[in-house]
Amino acid sequence: MLKKEHEVAALGAPHNPAPPTSTVIHIRSETSVPDHVVWSLFNTLFMNSCCLGFIAFTYSLKSGDRKMVGDLTGAQAYASTAKCLNIWALILGIIITILLIIIPILILQAYQ
Predict the structure, then answer these.
(1) CA nearest 76: which of 40, 38, 36, 44?
(2) Burial degree of 87 (CB within 10 A; 0-12, 13-18, 19+)
(3) Which residues, in sequence order, are CB contacts of 13 under 8 Å at separation 6+?
(4) What tens digit of pLDDT does each residue of 29-66 get?
(5) 98, exposed or middle or buried, with CB in 10 Å at 0-12, 13-18, 19+?
(6) Is the dihedral of CA 51, 53, 56, 58 positive or negative?
(7) What is d(CA 109, CA 98) in angstroms, rounded to the nearest whole number?
(8) Alpha-carbon distance 16 to 31, whole Å?
(9) What global pTM score does this model have?
(10) DSSP string, the chain
(11) If you compute the radius of gyration of the chain from its CA atoms, what whole number of angstroms results?
(12) pLDDT at residue number 29
């Protein structure tokens, strides 16, 4: 018998082995933070009054970046600003579209 084998045989198995430990990993559920990119892109392409759609698109992209980094508070702040700008861009776009339809009709009726 080798010396190392003899020492192991003499010591024997551990008398009080430590109980097996387990590791619990808590995965946080991702809070859904809408970044309004599609809405902002729509406002940028079709109703870009006063460049609000483009500014909203920029804030939407910043919101997505913050969400990817894990900064949910920053993502919510940028998303809230993008939403507000999108609402204003949509309202102004609708008003301008209606005025562009109504004003020429009124002008044509005045000259007839």
Answers:
(1) 36
(2) middle
(3) none
(4) 666 788 899 999 999 998 787 889 999 999 999 999 99
(5) exposed
(6) negative
(7) 17
(8) 45
(9) 0.67
(10) --HHHHHHHHH-S-SSPPPPP----PPPPPPP----HHHHHHHHHH--GGGHHHHHHHHHHHHHHHHHHT-HHHHHHHHHHHHHHHHHHHHHHHHHHHHHHHHHHHHHHHT-
(11) 33
(12) 61
Residue with tokens 């102004």: 92
The answer to whether the CB of 33 falls within 8 A of the CB of 63 is yes
Whether 78 contacts 63, CB under 8 Å: yes
Tokens representing 102 are 């109504």
Question: Are the CB atoms for 30 and 70 separated by under 8 Å?
Answer: no
- Amino acid 32 reads S
What is the identity of the amino acid at 97? T
Residue with tokens 């920029």: 58
